[in-house]
Design goal:
2 domains, binds zinc ion, alpha+beta, 5 helices, three-stranded antiparallel beta sheet, about 45% helix, flat
């Protein structure tokens, strides 16, 4: 399998797991050249996993679409390719675990938003503004205010660091 980071064709499988429904196998691979890890799924091609959009239309789930949305939201933010890959993996696993082979875009969106929120507020807000469709400016403002309050409380809880200790001379 060609490495998505450097294009090298040799890799080794570091983990292999079957889905709950036993209809797909997830393999974690490590590139033999750059040593980065990526995931492949093996499944029967005829059965697609679908996402249901707000207007009821169904679309085949595509990893690259989720990833490009994430890349936009996380542009110039502290995320590594591994962070993003892990989030997409989680979204896909969530879909694969669905008994109906489908999830709504808002279910998948909420899952991704929760992950982003835990890592970076800016990326979260960017992603949420697209996914949650803040049509209303007030709604958007309210969400921002909630976040700011939460952030403020974390800051207050933080205990200031003690001053650096002077090295003590041992008595001779
Ligand atoms: Zn590589």
């Amino acid at each position: 399998m060609k490495c998505p980071y450097c294009g090298f064709a040799q890799d080794r499988v570091v983990d292999s797991r079957e889905s709950k429904e036993a209809d797909s196998i997830r393999r974690r691979r490590e590139c033999e050249r750059c040593e980065k890890r990526f995931t492949t799924y093996e499944r029967i091609d005829e059965i697609p996993y679908m996402v249901v959009k707000k207007d009821g239309r169904r679309e085949r789930f595509e990893r690259h679409k989720v990833l490009s949305g994430l890349l936009l939201a996380c542009r110039k933010r502290p995320f590594t390719p591994d962070n993003l890959e892990a989030i997409v993996d989680e979204a896909e696993t969530y879909l694969i675990d669905s008994p109906d082979r489908e999830r709504t875009t808002s279910e998948i969106g909420e899952l991704i938003m929760n992950r982003l929120k835990a890592i970076d507020t800016v990326a979260y807000i960017r992603f949420a503004s697209v996914y949650r469709d803040f049509t209303d400016v007030r709604e958007f403002k309210e969400e921002l205010e909630r976040l700011l309050i939460a952030k403020d409380q974390t800051a207050k809880r933080r205990v200031p660091e003690p001053p650096p200790r002077k090295p003590q001379r041992r008595p001779q």
